[in-house]
Amino acid sequence: MGDKSAVDKVKGKAKEMKGAVTGDDRTKAEGRTDQAKGKAKGAMDEAKSNVQGMRDSLKNKGDRST
Q: Which 8-state DSSP code applies to residue 18?
């Protein structure tokens, strides 16, 4: 998980909790949105990493000499 995705998740959870304590539905909703944004960023980072790994694997497979 990237740093930005973790920051968004923590920031979102804090906003959601603040909204719950103060009764501010808008702040709660913003918090949930920030958390979802963090999860999406984390998923994108993971997907990029997986693609890079597959690319490297395929590249190395072609470099083998028999």
A: H
- State the pTM of this model: 0.70
How many residues are recorded in the chain? 66
Tens of pLDDT, residue by residue over 33-42, are 999 999 999 9
**How far is the C-alpha of 28 from the C-alpha of 53, rounded, in Å?**
38
* 34: Cβ contacts below 8 Å, ≥ 6 apart: 8, 9, 11, 12, 15
Burial class (CB in 10 A: 0-12, 13-18, 19+), 18: middle
